[in-house]
Amino acid sequence: MDVFCHHLYEYEKGLRNLILHTTHPDNKKLMLKRLNNKNIAYLIYQVSDKKINILFGDDHCIEVIKKIDKNDLTEYTAEEDFILGIMLGYDRLKQCQRYIDFKKERADQELIAG
Questions:
Q1: pTM here?
Q2: Interhelix angle for 78-87 vs 59-68, to 10°?
Q3: Which CATH class is domain 1-72?
Q4: What residue stretches are annotated with the DUF2023 domain (predicted)?
C-alpha cells in the first residue's frame, strides 16, 4: 500500500497524469475505495490469480486506454504500447527505443513464421 499511496501522491501533485500500479487482488477493495473517494478514474486488468493492474489518473488518459479496448497489456500493438508508455510519463527516448525493438521483434517473428 505504500507504493500505491506514493502513486496517488504523484498523481494528486500533478507529477504524472496516469499511473499503472500492479498489486495483489486482496488490495483492490481498499484501493478502489480511495480512488472513488477522490473521484479518480481507473481501469483494472486481471493479470493472474495473484496480480492485478490498476491504471488510474486523468479522465482523458483513462478514455484513451478504454478506446484501445484490450483487456491485457500484452495484447497491445507497438503503437499502443508506445502511447501508453508516453502517457505513463516514461522516458521518451527509451520509449522510442522500445518501439523500434518491438517492431523489429515482430518483423523477425513474421520472417520465422514464413
A1: 0.88
A2: 170
A3: alpha beta
A4: 3-100
CB proximity list for 97: less than 8 A, separation 6 or greater: none
User: Is residue 51 pLDDT above 90, yes or no?
Assistant: yes
E strand map for the chain: 18-23, 41-48, 51-57
Length of the chain: 114
- Where are the chain's structural domains? 1-72, 76-114
Contacts of 46 (CB under 8 A, 6+ apart): 25, 52, 71
- Residues 89-112 have pLDDT tens digits of 999 999 999 999 999 998 888 888
